Each structure stands twice: as C-alpha cells, then as structure tokens.
Amino acid sequence: MPQNLRSPRARWRKGSPMQRHDRLPPALRRWLIHAALPWSAASVLHLWQRTLREGGSESLALQRLDAAERATLRREAPRVWGAAYPVCENSP
After folding, report:
1. Nearest one of 54, 64, 52, 55 to 25, comparing CA atoms
2. Residues 77-86: pLDDT tens digits?
3. Where is this region: Disordered (predicted)?
4. Distance CA 24, CA 20 (A)
5. Helix ranges (DSSP H) in 14-92
6. How does pLDDT run across 7-65, given as a tens digit for each residue?
7. Would 18 be classed as within a structural domain?
8. Where does residue 44 rank: exposed (0-12), middle (13-18), buried (19+ CB within 10 A)?
9. Is residue 85 assigned to a domain?
10. The dihedral of CA 10, 11, 13, 17: what is its sign?
C-alpha cells in the first residue's frame, strides 16, 4: 500500500487513542461522556492531574474541566456559528 494514504500525524501518535481513553480515571471518563467538546484523553488528563497535583479534589478537577469547556465554547462560538449565536453566560 502506498505511504501517501496514511496521515502524516499517524507517525507522531504512540499507542491507541481508545486505550488511552480506557485508562482514564472513571470519574473523568464519566465527565467525557457528557462533554460538549471532543476532548482528547491527553488534554483532559493533563488538566485533571494538574488540579490534583495542586492539592485539589476530584470534584474540583471536574469543576475546572467544566469551566475550561465553558470558556472554550464562549471563545469559539462566534467564530464557528457567528456573532449572533446565543451563548449562555450562566450555563452550569
């Protein structure tokens, strides 16, 4: 098979993305099920571990992920859906 059919990024990845997802802590996997954005296992795990390393709890880490997702949606919504798209500032 010709090499040009493979993604150049495929060489950068080590291991299976599903295996990385399956190794996430159960509470983090549950959060990902309901996430509005397609988070990578690496990015959520990084924020999760940083919160725990700073002395936070699992619930604080989940709150931090919620806040990061809300901030990303607020920032990206006008570019993706247009400036008139209603973004709720008081969303949970």
Report:
1. 52
2. 888 777 777 6
3. 1-22
4. 7
5. 17-22, 26-33, 41-53, 58-81
6. 555 556 567 778 888 899 999 999 999 999 899 999 999 999 999 999 999 999 999 99
7. yes
8. buried
9. no
10. positive
∠ CA 44-49-73, rounded to 5°: 30
Neighbours of 48 (CB within 10 A): 21
Residue-number span of the structural domain to which 21 is assigned: 3-78
| CA distance to 28, 45, 55, 80, per residue, from 21 (Å) | 9, 9, 24, 27
- Residue 84 in any domain: the answer is no
In angstroms, the CA 42 to CA 60 distance is 18
Structure tokens at 11: 């060489």
